[in-house]
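User: quick one, sequence for these tokens?
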């Protein structure tokens, strides 16, 4: 998955927040059609038993800077599924103790060939929105004591239905089922074996895909087409 999210449909995202039964909005939610990696994005997590929405830097690994923290030189806006259970990896502890959900209308994919972008697509939920499965981490400044929050989106193997859009990976789209979301956000659920089935590519809702000229202007250059949810 490439590094952009569509959280521009405020009505849809507000409805997702209501469905998630958030108890605390620590920050003002961010709404934007084009959020790229390293920018702030609104996430939902559970901390000390309270389900809350916070804004986090979309880059899991941070490093100290003159003003607090900045994205690390190590790419980490996505966390690969096959690294989640590798001890010492960036997402190992977070997968067990600080999973999160990123509510969105859609996401964007860029297909690269030999390091060059060949085409861009925007994908949105046909009805409602999407819940992307992610990880988050807190970083404490030793001098000021201030906390910075970071996050990543978990990526899975490529999905056959997206083969003409992106061939390397697909994002973890969580099924909009309360029992699954509740377990995913439960900070006391430290044995992630129950999530093994979620780490298989699956499209839980119908999508609409649109090829665009480039992410910054997102002008359509072909007919939109539907991608049906998996059974």
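Assistant:
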């Amino acid at each position: 998955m490439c590094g952009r999210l569509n959280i521009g449909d405020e009505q849809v995202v507000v409805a997702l927040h209501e469905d998630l039964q958030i108890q605390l909005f620590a920050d003002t939610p961010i709404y934007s059609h084009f959020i790229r990696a390293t920018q702030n994005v609104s996430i939902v997590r559970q901390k000390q038993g309270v389900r809350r929405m916070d804004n986090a830097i979309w880059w899991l690994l941070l490093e100290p800077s003159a003003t607090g923290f900045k994205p690390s030189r190590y790419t980490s806006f996505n966390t690969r599924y096959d690294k989640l259970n590798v001890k010492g990896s960036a997402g190992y502890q977070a997968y067990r103790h600080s999973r999160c959900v990123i509510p969105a209308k859609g996401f964007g994919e860029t297909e690269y060939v030999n390091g060059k972008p060949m085409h861009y697509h925007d994908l949105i939920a046909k009805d409602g929105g999407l819940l992307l499965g992610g990880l988050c981490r807190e970083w404490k400044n030793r001098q000021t004591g201030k906390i910075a929050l970071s996050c990543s989106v978990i990526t899975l193997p490529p999905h056959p239905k997206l083969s003409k859009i992106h061939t390397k990976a697909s994002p973890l789209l969580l099924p909009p089922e309360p029992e699954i979301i509740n377990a995913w956000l439960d900070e006391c659920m430290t044995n992630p074996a129950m999530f093994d089935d979620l780490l298989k590519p699956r499209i839980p809702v119908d999508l609409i895909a649109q090829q665009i000229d480039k992410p910054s202007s997102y002008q359509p250059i072909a007919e939109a087409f539907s991608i049906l949810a998996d059974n």
